[in-house]
Amino acid sequence: MHKRISLFLTILLILSTLAGSFHYHADGADHPDCSVCLAHHQQADSNYVFPLPDIQRAFTETLLPRPVPAIIAKSCFTPANGRAPPA
After folding, report:
1. How do residues 56-85 score in pLDDT, each as one tens digit?
2. How many CB atoms neighbour CB 28 within 10 A?
3. Residues near 20 by Cβ (< 8 Å), separated by ≥ 6?
4. pLDDT tens across 9-53, in order?
5. Among 18, 56, 69, 80, which has the highest number of CB atoms less than 10 A from its own CB?
6. Residue pair 23/36 in contact by the 8 Å Cβ criterion
7. What distance in Å separates the CA atoms of residue 41 and residue 31, rounded to the nearest whole number?
8. Separation CA 51–CA 77 (nearest Å)
9. Contact 43, 52 (CB under 8 A)
10. Is the pTM of this model over 0.70?
């Protein structure tokens, strides 16, 4: 169900964008009585300014743990221990 709704809304968005892009009037003027012109100009003429977040970067020294020396242990899978006896 959600896939159908999302597909429908995506197609609606694409079609409305295409309709607004290819919409024109022969005289090339703005028409306040045209709903497509009104919708596009209302969106473009809004004086809303997106507030920019205040980003502060704090650089601190990252203390990494010292490497632990690898303990070399005797493997339990040696030829004498991990295989069946030869036939």
Report:
1. 777 777 777 776 555 554 455 555 556 666
2. 6
3. 36, 39, 40
4. 999 999 988 888 888 888 888 787 888 887 776 665 556 677 777
5. 18
6. yes
7. 10
8. 64
9. no
10. no
